[in-house]
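Lecture 7 notes: from sequence to structure.
We start with the chain below.
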Amino acid sequence: MTLKTHTPKKESKADKKWFLVDAEGKTLGHLATQIAVTLRGKGKPTFTPHLDMGDYVVVINADKIRLTGQKESQKEYIHHTGYLGHLRRQSIKEVRTKNPARIIEEAVAGMVPRNRLKKFILAKLKVYAGTDHPHGGQKLKPLSI
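Predicted structure tokens for the same chain:
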């Protein structure tokens, strides 16, 4: 008797679920880790590293995320445009007022592997500053964090 290992194929679409996460009062790093695991599908028994097996995650109340330590005053987002002397720095206070969803998006993006699947994995992340979101049609299940 020979046992065969089942390897999912690219064509076989895994059933993708939709999860809802309320970020109010949650710590940024712990929340981002759990979201990254769900987006990749690492909690599923059919996880395959070279395929996008993960689920969709909708995050609400991104503006009420909690930062620990001195991050509120010291953390900066740095971007270089490619031109000499064009290093752009934004404090997390500025980002929180202009685009609070960016805080969670960048934290999760840093926890996803840097390969060809990254953009497809991050496309399944939907982050909103308030409680309103346009994904009411999907059957959202709460993600326990």
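Points to note: Strands lie at 18-22, 56-60, 76-80, 87-91, 125-127, 140-142. The longest strand covers residues 18-22.
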